[in-house]
């Protein structure tokens, strides 16, 4: 048998290697440059063309004045488009949803054809946990059905005194600041603490007591709030690393910002796990003593979940492992305190900018308080201007910026095929500031607009602060109640004055960010209202 010379073998191996490398290079060129521009079924959708050749719109997004600014400019350029296409990193396809019809298809009609994108899981799951927000399909349906009972009108009624008590604590703290200093206070930190206190009672059934220990330490060990602040509100390099980690996992890098995050996150989870295990022991002891549990009588999330675990029959109870419970607690702590705190920050800024509206709101609130110093929910809901004011704050300055999804399968939206894996971005601001929906004055703060909504603005889907459809925010009613109660306390007792920047449009925002937050916080001067 004849054999090929050794040089021929070597040449064949080199040729095969070269062909393999050429195939890899060709595939990358196709994916990066040929497919997105000439093959993609999304290529004919309107969208920006000023992409970076490799990073898409990422650089433009990071350089913009706010997390929503690029998307708003595209919406204003194509206000009647259903979808706007742009490039993500490595020129992957992404679409911005701009019409009510497209939102309804994605969030209602075909809601389970979409899932949370992997980058979002990497970005926030290690912070907020893989709770209800990240559950998909039947798991989401089951979890939501179980958790819905905790947000029933009866449970909210039981929480009303908690909200009112914490609002009074906030008022007392502001009184101290006014009495002992110049009344200057940083709102982001202040409101974050009060809302975390409220969520401590709701989610854990305990008093975190952060209001009474602002700036304090527990020995040499940081308090729960200090660790939580480190995780949720990183500064400088920490913000950059958090954003990059959503694209490429980099938490392993040995830099100080990563070490601080890891230690703080570990401390938060450890403290919560201790509380969970203690509650499990309490419920186990109750069960061993022959006691039954009725979740209708439970007011906090943790006891509710543990009771479901040990007293529910069948698979529902079996799913609440200690890990699952921790994830749910993390999710509700994050979702329940950061968004409401952000809404309060922007509400205060709008009170400063619109003293006439603040005066009108105070008159309405004081009218109720004179009749009932501690009003019930019916009394609070009767305040029409307060309700309008709260909704207009959320329309104009919605704290939650993005609703991100990924097509879990090929799906057609408004006649356009979105291939599996397509990133889909929805932003409340895109609907709330669309002049074809809310009119030419959509950028103005006008609470009275809610008295007479017309055209598309009258559609429930024109208000996206809590999303819509089967995955609408489960805590929507709770959010509105606590938001209005704290506004009532603030407006009836204090006036606020701007320090430096007085206009909303001049406030520098954190970017990138999952929440609409002022960079460096927002310092104002509080003054007690003259009686």
UniProtKB/TrEMBL annotation:
<keyword id="KW-0408">Iron</keyword>
<dbReference type="InterPro" id="IPR001128">
    <property type="entry name" value="Cyt_P450"/>
</dbReference>
<protein>
    <submittedName>
        <fullName>Cytochrome P450</fullName>
    </submittedName>
</protein>
<keyword id="KW-0349">Heme</keyword>
<dbReference type="GO" id="GO:0004497">
    <property type="term" value="F:monooxygenase activity"/>
</dbReference>
<dbReference type="GO" id="GO:0005506">
    <property type="term" value="F:iron ion binding"/>
</dbReference>
<feature type="binding site" description="axial binding residue">
    <location>
        <position position="473"/>
    </location>
    <ligand>
        <name>heme</name>
    </ligand>
</feature>
<keyword id="KW-0479">Metal-binding</keyword>
<dbReference type="Pfam" id="PF00067">
    <property type="entry name" value="p450"/>
</dbReference>
<keyword id="KW-0503">Monooxygenase</keyword>
<comment type="similarity">
    <text>Belongs to the cytochrome P450 family.</text>
</comment>
<dbReference type="InterPro" id="IPR002401">
    <property type="entry name" value="Cyt_P450_E_grp-I"/>
</dbReference>
<dbReference type="GO" id="GO:0016705">
    <property type="term" value="F:oxidoreductase activity, acting on paired donors, with incorporation or reduction of molecular oxygen"/>
</dbReference>
<dbReference type="InterPro" id="IPR050121">
    <property type="entry name" value="Cytochrome_P450_monoxygenase"/>
</dbReference>
<dbReference type="InterPro" id="IPR017972">
    <property type="entry name" value="Cyt_P450_CS"/>
</dbReference>
<dbReference type="InterPro" id="IPR036396">
    <property type="entry name" value="Cyt_P450_sf"/>
</dbReference>
<dbReference type="GO" id="GO:0020037">
    <property type="term" value="F:heme binding"/>
</dbReference>
<keyword id="KW-0560">Oxidoreductase</keyword>
